[in-house]
Structure formats: structure tokens, C-alpha cells
Amino acid sequence: MTLNSKAFIAGIFEHPLRLAPEKSLPQLHAEVAKGALDDAGLSFSDVDGYFCAGDAPGMGAINMAEYLGLDLRYTDSTETGGSSPVVHVGHAVAAIAAGKCNVALITLAGKPRSSGQATGTAPRTMGSSIPESGFEAPYGPTTSNMYGMAAMRHMHEYGTTSEQLAWVKVAASTHAQYNPNALLQDVVTVEDVVNSPMISDPLHRLDCCVITDGGGAVVIVSPEIAKTLNRTQVKILGHGEAPKHLNGGLIDLTYTGAKWSGPLAFDEAGITPADIDYASIYDSFTITVLETIEDLGFCDKGEGGKFVMDGNLISGVGKLPFNTDGGGLCNNHPANRGGVTKIIEAVRQLRGEAHEKVQVPNCQLVLAHGTGGSIGTRMGSATLILGGEDA
Amino acid sequence: MSEAMKVPVPIINEETKPFWEATILKKFLIKYCKDCDRHHFYPRSKCPHCHSLDTRWVEASGKGVIYTHSTLRRAKVPFTLAYVTLDEGVSVLTNIIDCDPDSLSIGQQVEVVFRDNGQGSAMPYFTPME
Q1: Residue A66's CB: how many other CB atoms inside 10 A?
Q2: 3-state DSSP assignment of residue A166
Q3: Nearest CA in chain B to A153
Q4: Which residue among A210, A353, A385, B75 is buried most deeply as judged by most CB within 10 Å?
């Protein structure tokens, strides 16, 4: 059995704010939910399946069902960090295909910017029952030094350079100049990136994503409901997910779980990387993009540095237009989780609703990829392949 | 961690207690699986490679090479996080201490050193070999 085209993305919404000190966390979830349901032409009373992750308060779906006033027959609070919404889309399709729900709502929201979180440089909190805590927490792992270690090893094995990593940020910033909601709208150069302050070797400040409040939501519907809606329906053609971890100490930081989630998604969709018109690639750091595009098969392993150079990720310029909203590197990384915005911009591209300066012509096949956790330790990777009406 | 910083007290549970008790004796223990003849780290009662429940503690040589490293320049006191691949083949997360971070390189030989935390255990770190 394949889940190819068993459900459709009917609604999307990205919160316009990047700083929201006046709003509560559940309020942000509610605002993005309302936005995505309005976009789909549906209402809260239509929702019978709800999906959220660790960014939602309390018991997640249970607390949010009460706050939102939802009448549900299916909930899923799978937590894979920033990739959670990408995972949730796949789970929503499975639930809809199994008849467990017809209208699935996925929300993500948070406010790390207004709460002053030092997301990248403060130690990650680890619970005392987490088995690796005793062997990791005392050494001060943070988001930036863990990704830094992955970048350092990739450079060592494949000769990747800081200038090549910088091209990822240059491409994102080139797109972000057209997004009036983007946190960072200035176009930067390779020199700007490599001359920005060192955060954790070899990653500079401009190799790191932004820290923003806000969020986003996605509405998935059954084929029967899709037919009744007056909206371009986006086909969900393929989904793959895979954890990657330290493998009992036999480690390799030069690849991500995309190595496994990518082929699962491509196989279900029945297409290859060469067929992709646009890609939303999780960009917590420039190195995240570089390793992921290798793992997804857009280039050979170790060739990512050469692939991203000279604007190859810039829409209208290169072979693989990516993150045309400016991505996590420039636009938005709400709740320190970039998964939902990856799905949203991919849907905009298929609908022809991206900014005209970055819209990919005749865009019919797109990819959205999430990486949650850390590529320096353990992560949840998830890949979606989406199609337009002619796909 | 810098010597100026307080030596942390790790989280210890029933399964990892022998590891931390050995640190006072300056021994770095890892787990070995008799069924598949492989080591693993972090230590656990179940072998993550072959799924045997017959794992045992062995003392590692305490020597290895830097697999990768990153110095957090934005920390109040910059420090170097690293993975060290032990001679036994498994890699451990650690700090490289008593060194100039700019002098470190992947593949460099390092050895374990212990810093007593005064709370019944010692933190293992690694430092470059002469």
C-alpha cells in the first residue's frame, strides 16, 4: 500500500510576527490555526485530527484541544524537534487514509526571541532520566558547538570550506530581500559571512539561523473534502522519516538522517531528485543544508560545498532553488523549529504564491525536509515530496 | 571545561554507577559485549549492536584521537567540545583541556585525565599527548 496522493494540503499559514512579547504561547498556536483554516476555507468545527509537538504546552494535543475547543477523534504529539511538523504531515496522511480523521490540523508556535533565549550558545537542558545525560551534559554541548563539530569533520573529510558554507547564507539572503516579514532582509556576501564573529569553530554568526517568535500551521484533508474546497489542492506524494543517532559510539557526523528519509519519500512519490523543481531544506545552520542536499541525492556525498557555490541555490540563477522565503537563516525559525515554515514555502511555490522575484516557473514537484535535534548527536529527519495539480 | 570552572557533578543512575565509581580510581570504563565482541559507549546494560543483554565493564586504554572538535568562542570562558575516538573504536563526547584550542587538529593523539569534583566522582577529560 502506498499513501501517495491519499491526502492533500488544503491550508497553510505563517505568523507574520517575529517578535510577539504580548502574546501567550497557546494564543500563537490558535492564531496560526485560524490562519491556516481560513486559508483552506474550513473552520475549527471541521477539525477532527490535531497534531503538535513539544513546543505546545503541557500534554500537547490534550491541552490544546481544550484551549482551541476542538472536537477530536485523532491526536498525535510525536516529538522529533524541529522536524516534527514534517513528520506530522506524513502521520496525518496515514491517519486520513485509515479513516481515523478527515481534517487534520498541525500547529507549531513559540516565543524564544521575546523570552531572550540564547538558543545557540546556552547548554541544552537534559532531563535526568535521559540515558546519555551523564556522559554529555557536563561537557557543555550547545546547539552551535555540536553543529560546529559536524562542520569541522565535513571540512576534514571532504575539503569543504567556510566560503562554500557561506554561499548557503548568501542564497537565503538573496531570497529574503523580497519577504517583508523576514527578520533579516539585507543581502549579504560571502565576505560578510566569513568575516562575521566566530560563534563556535568553524561556524560564524551568519552561518546560524535566526531566533524568532511566531509559528505556523498546516491543514491536511481527505480527497473527498479536498474536492469540496475552492482552493488549489497540494498533493502529498511521498513521506519518509528516520532517526539517526550515535550508534553505540560508532559515529559519523558527515551525514544526517536524510540519507534514509529521502529515499523513502522519493520511492513513495515515484520520482528522483532530478525531478524536483524547488526544495525547502532545513537550515538551522549552513552546514545543515550542505549535508542534507548530499544525503537527499542532489549531489554526491562530499560534493555539497562545490554544489552550493556561485548561487546554485538561488531562484532564477541556480539548479536547485531553495528556501525562497529566506529560510531559517534569514526569515523565520519560530520556536527554534524550522519544520513548519519549510512546508509552508513549498506549498506557496506549488500554488504560484511565492514572491514573483523568487517564484519558480511551472513549479510542479517540490521537496520539504526537516532536521530536528542535532546533527552532532541524535536527530529526527523527515522528508516530504509534494505535487501541484498537474503533478 | 576551563580549570577556572567548577568541575561538574554528573547525573548518575543505577546503570552507570560503576563507570563513575571507577573515575575516582582514574579508570575510564566502557562496555564490552561478549556475544558480538564489540564495545559501545555511552555504557548501557543492553548491547546496541547485537541486542545481547550480556554486556560487561572493561577498562579502556584511555588513549585515542580527536574525531572532531569545536571551540565555543561566545561562551564566557571559551572551551573545546570534542569527540575522541578511543583505541577501542568507540567515540566519546568530551572536552579537550590544558591546551591551546587553536593548536588542535583532527587525528591528534589525546589521553584521558580526571578532575575530582569532590562529590564522590571525577570528570574524565582529554588532553593532547606529548
Answers
A1: 12
A2: helix
A3: B68
A4: A385
